[in-house]
Give the backbone structure.
Amino acid sequence: MHVEIDEPGRKVLLMGNEAIARGAIEAGVDFCSGYPGNPASEILETLAGVAKKLDFLTEWSVNEIVALEAAGAAACAGLRAMTVMKNMGVDVCSDFLMTVNMSGTKGGFVLISGDDPAVHSSNSELDTRNYARFADIPLLEPATTQEAKDMTKWAFDLSEELGVLCMVRTVTRLSHSSGLVSLGPITREERSAEFAPLLGTWTSGSGDYTCMFHDALHGKLKTAQEKFEESQFNWYTGKEDAEFIIITSGTGWLYSAEAVKLLGLKDEVGILKLGTTWPLPEKLIAKHLKHAKEVLFVEEIDPFLEQNVKVLAAELAADIGPIKFYGKKSNHIRSEFGAGVGELDVDTVMRGLTETMNVTYIPRDQDYAEKAEKLVGSYAPNRSMAFCAGCPHRASFWAIKRALKWDGRDGIVTGDIGCYSMAQLPTGFMVLKSMHCMGAGIGTATRFGNLKRYGLDKPVIAVSGDSTFYHACIPALINARWNKSNLLYVILDNKTTAMTGNQPHPGIGIDALGEPSPVTPIEDVCKGIGVEVRKCDPFDIDEATQNLYEMLQTEGVKVIIFSRECALTEAQKRKKKPRVYVDQDKCIGDECGCMRFCTRVLNCPGNIWDYTKGKAKIDEVVCNGCGLCAKLCPAGAIIVEEVV
Amino acid sequence: MQNIKGPDDLQRNVLDEELCTGCGACTNLCPYIDMVKANAIIIEPCGLSKGRCYNFCPRSYIDVPSLDKSIFGSYREDIAIGSNIYVMKARAKDEEIRSAAQYGGVVSALIIHALQTGKIDAAVLATSSDGVNPKPTIARSKKEVLECVGSKYIVSPTVSKVLDAIKGEMGKIGVVCTPCQMTAIRKMQDSPFETGEEKISLGIGLFCTWCFSPDTYEYIRSLVGSANILKTDIPPPPANIFVIQTDERRVEVPLDEIRKFIMPSCAVCFDMTNEFSDISVGTVEGEEDWNTVIVRTRNGERFLKSAKEAAIIETKPLEKEKFNHLCEASLNRKKRALKEIDGRKITYLTIRDEERSKIISWNGGI
Amino acid sequence: MIGDDPLNIIITGVGGQGNVVASRIIASAAVNEGLYVSVGEIYGASQRGGAVTSYVRLSGEMQYGPIIPRGMAHIIIGFEPIESLRAIGNFGSKKTRAIINPRPIYPVDVLSGTLEYPPVEEVLKAIKELVYGVQVIEATELAKKAGDAVMQNIVMVGCVVGSGLIPIEIETTKEIIKESFAKERVEANLKAFKSGVGEIKGRKAV
């Protein structure tokens, strides 16, 4: 692995998330925790991969608040600790965040947050930079993979110096992009942990004490600001007294630089690139606002810099004179969906520049663009997301769909975050009718299933994954029982955290390092809560349907665990995949009795349709060999052969 | 062919109208339709505009003249009990069968005979593990047939089992079923779709005035608790009771009490005596150890003859009075059904106009 | 070799086709050739049947951002016909060269019958109308011959390296392939790579 190369000065290709991991390694991290979530998952995976060799600790925690608490404890004990999570993970840990900011830290304490502009793998465009301002903590925003490493390393120093946790905000495009990184030395400082908080107690206090701590936090932020004025991560390029400047952070920097270059505006436009974005380096910004008459803000998601710089400009108005501000408010920086939504790229910045400066830019001539659009429209059908070939969720949702039809009361299915969220789409027969945060499926089902008093009397099914169960569903399940709800909770136990790349969870028996750890069975937890629990394999589809149906007929809170390993992890383990093929003589095709069930309804990407013959076929490259289609084929035309 | 429609029509014309008989003719054909509590449920529309589900359904449409023609070669002369060659009383000669059977044991005796002579390789019958709740099963031996004796009053999806049997290894299949189920089987045989229906070699039809819905089971249980139910019975008129015999006691329920569990689809049923069977079998008024037997087809006639020659059954003529009562009961049912059909503007049944007016104007007596 | 700097390469396909591995190999080889390299990747949908597009940008001068501007792809390596067309629609121009595996991976929308997948020849024809030149490579078939259909990505890497369009040597790439796979998989992948190189070498350049 490149991250463990100990050759200072060597340039290697690292992914953004690997660079962050490398930064932590170079900082001598002692402990890293996290909960899987795109785009941040690979950071902890990378660290766990070298943790043994470099002799530090890692853990996948059951959720983000536990992760932050764990890292907070390690930092409190004087160690260097880091927690990694996706954007919405910061919501989960914010309760601790909003207090541990005041109680402070002894060791370097770094929170890495991965935002997801354009929602490549998420369900929110939450801009977590707002949390840094909200919590009065220093915020760093890397623009390149090199900075991802360097800033992470520096965040530890900064945190230690200030005595407060620091946040580093990455975005999907940086986390999952690779670039050259010049390596620094790997340092392993032997620290010893002790519980010795500075004030004897590790607390955010109460009453006046909290106010004092809060004020002290503001003081720390002031110190941070002074440091940021000198930071190597902030710089200005272009004409010294440019009247038009771009203020940018994060990935916006590279896009801005390329846009300015492509438009030939190097001599006219200055770029103020900020790496430390909360608190703002006010003096540095003021210096450049002074010569600017027009400012364009280029940043991912929210107008965070835009608003904060405007406040600063108002304070400095007498000194700097009138300035025209462009960005999200003015709608000059916008995606196809609008301003403050979606992801930046070079074209977006170029459009912002052409609309605010007197330049034109035509990426491709009109004829070509129109022709391209027309041809793509005619010959490139859309490609929706779908459950993988062999995915147990396909069977689970078919069973749920059937059971609800059997029941006939037009039941409601609520869910949350995971691969199974795709059951909102045709791949899951559009069974799932709600999705919000982790655990919200069972949480909302608790009251959907208890509104008879107001006339809502339908069966309610909540679904969640196994990892989600541990993460956020247990309190809701207890609440449902406590408050006498009526619901059936389906736990789709695929023995992994699939959506984020198959990380382990407490039900599997291994930890972040892949070493054995005690198992907490879902079934035992549910039984302990006191609810009826059944368990079955969703591939036994009739049995699964029957169980669901029966449980829908009874009152109270019930749990059914659909237990079947994720097709991807299962495929990794086995040596040969079974050969699956369609007996062309038996296949009914699109006639009565089948009507292309395997492709049209079951919709597994491994089942394809031969239009010339009017028969089903298996795409042997895509097929995972699970045999679900063979079980459901009404003609028994799909044959599964074990390959020895 | 103009009558053949698809699942959307099945939903609209049959299921939404609560006309499903629970026969199972539309299930086991495809993955889109399941049978739950004697109601067909379309899980997902298959998208076809023509299908076997609608084609086989005994409540989508019944063209009586056309079915008569294809089964009997000509249109019925007897408007009361449908085409028949002769009507008589019969009972099984085998004591073992008779003692096990509810009445004369003719059905069991004939099926066993058919299996033993190779007339059929398997028979689809209704069985019950608890004396009440029936489920269809495939019997291949005398022993298996005897496990199925006794009347079942709750509906079971026999035709879906027939479809199972067709898909299986069995060559020739016999069926014992109710009139609606027999209608489905005859429609299957009369259909342009090929389902393997030629395997069905013998159709023994049961008389039926109505069936109970599966919810009846809960009700019966509420009456007898967890006691072991040996059999249920509706003795011939004028008893007017439903009897539950457990190994502890006999519980009698007034028929009117249990009528609320009758399948809604029975209200439009036109056929009490199983008019499309090869041989129809029912009770005899006032006689507990004989059956009424109507022989309808040449196939049925030949088979019954062989059973008689082999001394499997013994027969007696049916008394004129009893025959008249049977016809009256049947006409009564038809008249009520027509009234219901007309009142609800349901269009599933096609009969000749003259037959219709005769039945409508019938006021008792033969 | 194309002289543009930065040289913009797009690798496009469907989740599970090995986009990420292919872009990593090309990028790592480019690093060993002493170039500035950036790779942009989005693979949230990678295992879920969605389209996956990787951007590889090579430069002798500086580090570029991970996203290629509209119309500026010089080379498009398409693992799947309609995804190739889609990428060309966004990033192609009359200067773009395309190397395409014509084997379709049907979108679920097509399998369900909601949408239609046009005949592959028509897709290729549409592509030809939009680019400078196209090489159609039966990469899945070549990969099968090398031992496993999944190695079509490596066959395609072989084609692009063998084409001489990018400033990366065959030997450099081989070294990276050796580092990139578990021991027992190296030989088959080298075989796939070589078959790609051989396939393209036998053709007239476009």
About this structure: The radius of gyration of chain C is 16 Å.
